[in-house]
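Single-chain item
Fold in C-alpha cell form
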Amino acid sequence: MVASVVSAFGRRIAEAAVALGALALITATPAAAQGLIRDAEIEETLRVYTNPLLEAAGLDPADVDLYIVNDASVNAFVAGGQNIFVHTGLILRADSPNEVIGVLAHETGHISGGHGARRSQDMQRALGPMLLSIGLGVLAIAAGAPDAGAALISGSSAFGMGEIVRHTQVQESSADQAAMQFLDATGQSGRGLISFFNTQIRPYEFMSRRAPPWMMTHPFSSDRVEALRERVQSAENYNATDSEENLRRFRFMQAKLVGFIQTQGQTLARYPLRDTSQPARYARAVAYYRVSDLTRARGELDVLMREDPNNPYFQELMGQILFENGRAEESIAYHRRSLELVPNQPLLQINLARALNAAEGRAGTDESIALLQAAVAREPDNAYAWRELAQARDLRGEEGLAQLASAEQNFALGDYNSALSFAERARRTLPRNTPSYQRANDIVLFAGNEVRDRQAQQRGRRS
C-alpha cells in the first residue's frame, strides 16, 4: 500500500470536485484529506464489486477509474467525468460487502445519468438568479434603500444555490433508483443500501434538518430510505446474500486498512491475538510492520503463506516489509512471486523493479526498466513509476532518458516548473527525430504554457 502524493489529475479532481452522491455532508470530515491511497489488492476488490454494476449500466469498466481517498469520513462521490472516489471511512464503517456495493451502485447511477455534465449546466443556470439578485441590490442602493440592497446582494448565493439544490436532490433520488436497477440486474440485494443509510447516515439527520433548505443538496436520508424501501423489498433478489468470495475480499480489505491507517493499539483491539483468522493475522502483520516489529510481522505472514501460498498479496506484503527494512535482495523473490500470481499488475511491477534497482544496481536495470515501461504504459500518470524509471536510467548512464523520466514524474505531479526544466535538459541530450525527443518537446510546450499562464494570473492578482 502506498499513500501516494496526489497527481496533477487527482489534484484537479479534488479542486473541482462536485460531490455527486457525497455521503459525508452530514458526518464529521477532517480539515484535510491525507491524499490518495494506491493498493493493488483493495483496488482489485473495488473493481470486482463495481465492474458488474458498470456493465449493467451499459458502461465500459475500462472507461471508469476508481480512487481510494485516505479520509475517515463516510463518503463516496463521482467527479471529473467517470471517476469514482471512495473514502476509507466508508469501507471501514460498512458492515457488509453489500453495503459498499450499494454505494458503488449509487455512484454508478450518477455516471450513467450524466449528472456530472448536468451539474455544470445547473451551476451555469444558477448564475442567472445570482446576478439578478446582485443587480436588484445595486439598483435598490442607488434608489436610496441601502438596507434592502445589501440584503439582496448578501442573499444572492441563496438564490443561486436554490436553483442548484432543486436539481441535485432530483439527481440523488434518481441515482438511488438507478442503483436498485443495477443491483437487481446483477442478482444482488438492495438491503445493503437501506441498512447503510439507516446506520451510517440517518443518525445525523437531525443536524442536516437544522441547515437552511437552500444548502441541502441531498434529500433527507429518511426520505431516501422510504423512497427505496418498497422497491428494495419487492425486488426479485431481495433475499440474495453476499457471496463467499465477496465476503472474503471485504474482510481482507478492512483488515488491511485497519492495519495501515489505525494505530497498533486500535488494530490489536479489533483483531486480538486470540483471533487466528487470516484477516486478523493480516491486520496484525501490517500493524507490527508499521512499528518496525519485523519478527512479529514475519511470524504472522509466515503462517498466512503456509496456509495460502498462492495469495499474491501475502507475498507482496512480505516483500514490502523486507524491502523497507533494508533487505532489498531478500525481497525480490516475494515481489517476483506476487507478480507471477497477478501478471501485468502495474503496482506489483513497480515493487519488483525498485527492489531490483536497490539490490542489483546496474545489473538489474534491464529487467527493471522493462517492468517500469510496462507499468507507465498502463498508468501514464503514475509519478512513482516515473521516479523509479529515472533512477534506473541514471544507473545505466542514460542521462537524457533519465531527465525525460524526471520530467514525466513532475508533469504527473503537476509541478510544471520542474517538468519544464527537466524536459529542456532532456532535449539537449536526446537525439532529434526520436519518440523520446518528441515527448520531451511536447512537455516543454505544454508545461511552458502552463507556467506562463500561472505567472500571468499571479501578475493579474497583484495588479
Observations:
- Residues 3-33, 130-134, 155-167, 204-218 have pLDDT under 50 and may be disordered.
